[in-house]
Specification:
Layout: E1 11-14, E2 21-24, H1 29-41, H2 44-58, H3 70-85, E3 88-94, E4 102-108, E5 113-115, E6 123-125, E7 130-134, H4 153-162, E8 164-169, E9 172-175, H5 181-189, H6 193-205, E10 208-216, E11 223-229, E12 241-242
Antiparallel strand pairs: 1-2, 3-4, 5-10, 6-7, 7-8, 8-9, 10-11, 11-12
Helix pairs in contact: 1-2, 2-3, 4-5
Length: 243
């Protein structure tokens, strides 16, 4: 006699990058095991692969996780996690007023949204004739936990060139997919410092998981606003930014 098959609840969310609805289910013990093993390894590559594997399985294979913007993937995983092990995440947050005391806080994951800076644009005007249309990097292109300031020059240029979608030269449109990585890198190298600053602004202002919380220092009783940003801030020892 066969063992019973347990039914799993199904939920629905809307992708932050587009008005597209995606059905998903909570992760199962087998998927939680994959995540725990990846986290025990401490290797970003394994953690990213586990994240993609879980999101793909829990969305019934209906989305291409390798082509999805990082913030979409993180948002989906956040929703899956909320429905799997609880909607509240308990964190220890360093209090900004003395920068040494930690406070216990609880974050309602259902209230966390992908936010975008008001100044954000994916169009980079190079000069009067040429402009670039950028696309959002995927987890294949960019490790969101990586510090951009400590990135090697080649890594930085590769990420920029991989994020180019189209290059407009007057009426002519160049699809980035028609050119090699070497050719795109060579184009990026011809940009001015002003152009390069615009590209950096594209990355620093692009959509990301972001949520503001209030923290009370248990020692000083001082209340501070703290911003959680990026998936790692909601499930570990966050690198926090004062609001």
């Amino acid at each position: 006699m066969a063992l019973p098959i347990l039914e799993t609840a199904t939920y629905e969310l809307t992708l932050p990058s587009q008005d597209t609805k995606v059905k998903f289910r909570p992760f199962l013990v087998k998927e939680e095991k994959i995540l725990l093993m990846a986290m025990e390894s401490g290797e970003n590559g394994q953690i990213q692969n586990a994240l993609k594997e879980i999101v793909s399985a829990c969305t019934f294979g209906t989305i291409n996780v390798s082509k999805m913007p990082t913030f979409d993937l993180e948002y989906i995983f956040l929703q899956i996690r909320a429905k799997s092990v609880g909607e509240v995440s308990k964190l220890k947050v360093k209090c900004p007023d003395d920068n040494e005391t930690f406070a216990n806080v609880e974050v309602d994951l259902t209230e966390v949204e992908v936010q975008v800076d008001e100044t954000h644009t994916n169009e980079i005007q190079v000069n009067d004739k040429i402009k670039m249309l950028m696309k959002y990097p995927t987890m294949e292109d960019f490790d969101p936990s990586m510090d951009a300031d400590n990135m090697k020059t080649n890594q930085l240029f590769d990420i920029i060139s991989k994020s180019i979608y189209q290059i407009y030269d007057g009426e002519e449109i160049h699809q980035a997919t028609d050119y090699s990585q070497k050719e795109l890198n060579a184009f990026v190298e011809t940009l001015t410092s002003e152009n390069f600053n615009k590209i950096q602004t594209f990355f620093t202002t692009m959509p990301k998981l972001k949520h503001e919380i209030e923290v009370t220092n248990p020692k000083t009783k001082v209340k501070s606003k703290v911003v959680l940003s990026g998936l790692q801030d909601f499930f570990g020892s966050p690198s926090l930014t004062t609001a």
